[in-house]
Amino acid sequence: MKKEGVILDEYEKLILDKLKTGSTQVDISNYLKEKNIEPHSLRSIEHRIKNLKKRFQAKTLIALIYILTKNNHI
Q1: Per-residue pLDDT for the chain (74 aa), expressed as one digit of tens each?
Q2: How far apart (Å, rounded) are the C-alpha atoms in residues 3 and 19?
Q3: What pTM value is reported for the model?
Q4: In whole angstroms, what is the distance from residue 39 CA to residue 54 CA?
Q5: What is d(CA 57, CA 12) in angstroms, rounded to the nearest whole number?
Q6: Are the beta carbons of 13 and 74 closer than 8 angstroms?
Q7: Do 52 and 16 contact (CB within 8 A), yes or no?
């Protein structure tokens, strides 16, 4: 499902890019800590992913990545 006027912030783009290339949520948390990017807690990442899935009506993480990639959002 394409969402018109989709705006992803840089934090969301970073998380999604890392997921797209095979990083786990723990890997992403560690990467954010190393780069001093906040929030970097695992819970913050999980929460953001949950909100993105709801926003784009994706039931799974794979579906979310597919939807956003297909529509050139990431």
Answers
A1: 444 567 899 999 999 999 999 999 999 999 999 999 999 999 999 999 999 999 999 999 999 999 998 988 77
A2: 20
A3: 0.84
A4: 20
A5: 16
A6: yes
A7: yes
Q: For residue 6, is it within any domain?
A: no
> Is there a domain that residue 5 lies in?
no
Question: Scanning the structure block, which residue is given the tokens 């956003």?
Answer: 68
Q: Are 34 and 13 in contact (CB under 8 A)?
A: no
The single-letter code of the amino acid at 67 is I
Residue type, 48: R
Amino acid letter for position 41: S
| Residue in the structure block whose two tokens are 């990431």 | 74
Domains identified in the chain, total number: 1
